[in-house]
Amino acid sequence: MRKFLILFACAFCTSLLSSQTSMRLVSETPVLYETVQTKPVFPGGIQEFMRFVMKNYQAPSTEEEEVETGTLEVSIVIGVDGNISKVEIIKEVGNAGKEVKRVLAKCPKWTPGSQNGVNVPVVYNFPIKIQ
Known about the structure:
Blueprint: H1 2-28, E1 31-32, H2 46-56, E2 70-78, E3 84-91, H3 96-105, E4 113-115, E5 118-120, E6 122-130
Parallel strand pairs: 1-6
Antiparallel strand pairs: 2-3, 2-6, 4-5
């Protein structure tokens, strides 16, 4: 009976550890914003996020360089802790991407997204109009 209990305990612990490992793998793979069950939320909502970016964005003075206009496309990952990482400029407009990266480095934490009750990193793509 004792050997049976030890064998059962080992099997139980092994299955528990393997399920935790698979949960970690799920939480490390970014999920698209459009498909995640519970979307990440910026304090105040997406409109407030855009206000934050535009308020903190500093266009170069026209004396330093010519300011190009257009739509910059950005991709970020909102981590399981709500911090922004992996900022990628998908479509650049002049040198605006460098400034957007600087602004996003100062971004407050988001409420993270979740899938099946587990916080997961979420990829969020968005445009910024440079005028």
